[in-house]
Amino acid sequence: MPASTVTVRSHRPAPRRLNWRRAIAWTLLALAIAVSVLPFYWVLRTALSSNHALAANSANLLPADFSLGAFERVFGLQSPAQAVAEGGSGASINFWQYLANSLVFTGTTTICAVFFSSMAAYAFARLRWKGRNAVFSLFLGTMLVPPIFTALPNFLLVKNLGLLNTMLGLVLPYLFMTPFAIFFMRQFFLNMSREVEEAAMLDGARHWRIFFQIVLPNAAAPIATLALLTFMGQWNEYFWPLLVGSDESTRVLTVGLGVFKSQSPQGAPDWSGLMAATLVSALPVLILFAAFGKRIVNSIGFNGTK
Amino acid sequence: MGKAQPGRRRSRSDLGIALVFVAPALIGFVLFYLVPTVRGIYLSFTKYSTLSLADPKWVGTANYEAIAKDPLFWNALGVTLEYVVINIVLQTALALGLALLMHRVAKSTIIRGALLLPYLMANVIAALLWFWMLDYQIGIVNQIIEWIGLPRVAFFGSEEWAIPTQALINTWRHMGYTALLIFAGLQAIPNQVYEAAHLDGASAGQTFRKITLPLLRPVLVLVLVVTVIGSFQVFDTVAVTTQGGPINASRVIQYYIFQRAFTQHDFGYGSALAVILFLILALVAFIQMKFLRGNESDLD
């Protein structure tokens, strides 16, 4: 092919026929989608394979010697002896415990952070008070502090309070606010019509009631989006739970996955078990994505172009 | 307006109720952001082992002097920079290409969703997934490499590949997200600009260089800053896959901080390392402010 003069005219759909340039564009896009999505198929395929058949059928597109053993191992349905026979480490995996911990950690922090951040955002957007912008800038400035920097002193604080390896210690730093949540909700509240509030004000409603009965219901959509983003972020959190919740009783799924990986024998890791655990850990996010994909996708432009 | 009267209670001030609304967030902010920031800086000037019961002992700049002579620190800095550079180049180039493709041939939400899928996964999951796919013996990627006729690659096991591999995993996870940010920027460019350029007989290449790129500048700067700041803080994938190895090949700064503070219980040294990371990121943010001054005006 000669180095042709690229004459594609921006995005105007004038000649809509399928020329070769369009075909190349679609091929590249399809390739990117394949690279993004196909690894998940490979995880599923591995999880449904029998460990011992993997090595001999490493490039087989279908599960090698189809087996649900990996999932049984993850859910703790196999005896240790059977697990070892199928390539597991034999160490018990408290999957249900980790799942419960993940749910408590993620659920509590999401609900509290979204609620308290909305309250603060309301004060920053709709109430008049001295120092409002200064305090808001200060809050926003914390977005610049790298999490590991505050994680060290926060670890000491939680340790001194005797809250290491407790759910309370795990959730505490996330409970009251996140700078992003305040920023996100404030943007919405700034654009809300003042008339609703003023009408309620004439009726003698106090701010507290206005917030609960008028503002929050009107903000249902952005709150749902924020809750979704916060939930997924918290579900995927690794560093803080690794520091504070390394015990079985407080171990969340991400940390559990790391432990599962490090437990598997160096020479012949339990690949199918590891992939089954990975898949199951990703499941809540996958389900949320299937249900609210459009909302999640549309929230992405928010960061970049306000 | 009322700068003449410093009194707290003015007729239209909602200070009282505002404090109630801000109180929980303020508590969280002070306890878990403000105080730890100050304390972290203080700790960086102390010798403090979390194993002993002794209090932090003030040692002045001793930690920083030790860091300046610490080959592991300089190695970590170099390794992190390598990771950052690969990420910036790969991620920005691929994302820009993807955004242009989406903008021209397909704006469908399903396609955007598919590209976003890796970004929604935990770092730990991305790490494990690729740890399996890139396995030297039976990983599918090495199968394909061999099938093409090239020698197998020890992605996690060789010093030259450890960091590029981490960067590739991160690029895979963030490519779609970055593309969506740029895509949003493309959508914001008014069509008339392109039409005018078309009437003037500009070629596609000229249009891209003279119109698209300059108008995308704020978004591109934002993308670069997000990528750089995120890349400097890589931890999860390293912790799950190579744990800094082989030898020191993938011991990035954040992993080194983690090791000093939590494996070797040397909190003073770890804090000083964290301060340095903080300063690097502040510098990046400062450069951002300079570039994005125009966007800072919405603090009303």
Explain what this protein looks like in three dimensions.
- The complex is a heterodimer of chains A (306) and B (300).
- Chain A has 15 helices and no strands.
- With 306 residues, chain A is mainly α.
- Chain A has a domain of 160 residues: Orthogonal Bundle (MetI-like fold).
- The radius of gyration of chain A is 25 Å and the shape is globular.
- The N terminus of chain A is likely disordered.
- Chain B is mostly helical and 300 residues long.
- Chain B is built from 12 helices and 2 strands, in the order αββααααααααααα.
- In chain B, strands 1-2 form a two-stranded antiparallel ribbon.
- In chain B, helix 3 runs antiparallel to helix 9, helix 4 packs antiparallel against helix 7 and helix 9 packs antiparallel against helix 12.
- The radius of gyration of chain B is 24 Å and the shape is globular.
- Chain B starts with 14 loop residues before the first helix and ends in a 9-residue tail after the last helix.
- The N terminus and C terminus of chain B are likely disordered.
- Chains A and B meet through helix 1, helix 5, helix 6, helix 7 and helix 8 of A and helix 1, helix 3, helix 4, helix 5 and helix 6 of B.
